Each structure stands twice: as structure tokens, then as C-alpha cells.
Amino acid sequence: MTCPTTEAWAAWLDGAVPSPGREELAQHAAHCPLCQATLQSLRQVDSSLARLRPQPVPADVLMRVRQSLSPAAGHTGWPQIMTLEEVGRFMQLDDRQLDEIVEDLPAFELAGQIRVRYARLLEWIAQREREFTHQRTGSWVGRPTIGRDASSYSLKFESA
Ligand SMILES: [Zn+2]
């Protein structure tokens, strides 16, 4: 008897081969080292698959996955709720500069601490962008000087 295919052995292991084929295969398996190896591999695959049954996911893991998948979190590595220090680093402002805008920030107080929600901060920045663009497309010509802060832009107003 030539060696049965792996598919045949898989069917045999599943008890899906009827007699007399079933007995013939059993006899072959008893004497053929090659097919014994095949059978061993198949049994290993079976037990691996059995271990892959869905496991309940712990609640805290689920929560962290949901947080990391939310559009606001993205893959930026910034937390959903930011401290002022983190806001400063995020916007590349030093403490003094941060002090100047802290009143305008979409912040809230929590146990005596100021916190800013990352998603709200992005909205706030977008709003400022719109305002700034609107200002620039106003009455003046000339472009902002790169590398300076907004107050030192050389504004050249059109002399009408
Ligand atoms: Zn064989």
C-alpha cells in the first residue's frame, strides 16, 4: 500500500473514514514510520487549534485597546487627558509662553489640577488655524517671517 495523503490521515483522525478503509489505514499506520510522523504532526496541529479557542479578554485590556483605537488618540502617544506640562511639550511652548495662553486653553480643573483633553486641544488648535488664516487673508500683503513668533511678523499693510 502506498502512503495515504495527509488529507486522508486527517479524515481518519476525525473518524471520517468508513470501514474497511479505516482498518487498512490503521494497519498502515502501525507499520509505516513516515505516516506515524505525519499523524504526530496532525495531532499536534489539532491540540494547538484546541488551545486557540477564544478566551475572555480582561476588561482593562479591552479598555486600553479601545482607547488606543479611538481617532483622537491615534498613534501619537499623547494621553487623552493631558497635564499642562504635556500640553507645553505638545505645542512646543516653554512655561512662560504656556502661561500666556493658559486662560484660552480648553482646560478643566480636576482635584485642583488643570487638565486638557487631547481631542479638545486639537479642535482648539484647528480653530486658531482658521482664525489665523482668516487674519492673514485680510488687508495686508507680505508673508510671515519664518522662525519668528506671531507677534514679530512684519505686517505690510497695503497703502491705499
Ligand atoms: Zn506510510
Question: Do you know the CATH topology of the largest domain?
Answer: Arc Repressor Mutant, subunit A
The CATH class of the largest domain turns out to be Mainly Alpha
Quote the beta fraction: 5-15%
Please bin the fraction of helical residues.
40-55%
Number of strands: 5
Explain this structure.
Helix 1 (6-13) crosses helix 3 and helix 2 packs across helix 3 (33-51). The chain is built from 7 helices and 5 strands, in the order H-H-H-H-E-H-H-E-E-H-E-E. A hairpin with a 2-residue loop joins strand 2 and strand 3 (113-117). The N and C termini lie far apart (103 Å). It has helices at 6-13, 21-31, 33-51, 59-69, 84-91, 95-101, 118-136; strands at residues 81-83, 107-110, 113-117, 140-141, 156-157. The protein has 2 domains: 6-48, no CATH class; 71-141, Arc Repressor Mutant, subunit A. With 160 residues, it is mainly α. Helix content is 52%, strand content 10%. The strands form 2 sheets. A 3-stranded antiparallel sheet has the order 1-3-2. Zinc ion binds at residues 3, 28, 32, 34-35. Zinc ion (ZN) is lined by residues 3, 28, 32, 34-35.
